[in-house]
DUF429 domain-containing protein
Amino acid sequence: MGTIFGIDYGSKLSGNTVIAIYQEPNIFFMEVEPKVDADQFIRNAVTHFEPELLFIDAPLSLPGVYRNLSGFEDYHFRLADRETRAMSPMFLGGLAARAIELKASLESERLKILETYPKLMAQRFDLKSIGYKGTKSALKDCISKVRSCMRPSLKINSNDILSWHHLDALLALMSALSYHCGDYRCFGDEREGLIYI
């Protein structure tokens, strides 16, 4: 298995974009500094690490009505958004446009880029019951729960998970690893855009 990325994608200069990187057997993190271009940060990381698979928490397509796909009439939500209760790409506006552009510029025969939604992986781990996206102590509890569900052979330093953005990047990476192993679910319509968990 080659290098795999899970990305929690934030606004361009906020410093909230985090990449969780899997290089067997290690998982480690890179976070962008505030006021640094997050998209260029990701491009640089892709150039350096040459991942084969990248899962990103951001819409990678627009509702099918905008592409004149037959059977699609919703101007706000894709089928995948409705099935997962994710935010509309139209509401996310510029962030969605950046993610779609990033995918177009990076995806190649060697690198596959897919959309994910960490909140659903958090549901799989039942993190809401222990305070997902709540306090700092809840973050530690959620990290422990995710660690307890990971293969013991995976090497990760829990102290590197500094924020909910780091945890969401890890959840995106867990979805990518599940996909790589063939144990995943996808939501939506392939013609319009899928979300993989």
Observations:
- The beta strands are 4-8, 18-23, 26-31, 53-57, 112-116, 155-156, 186-189, 193-196.
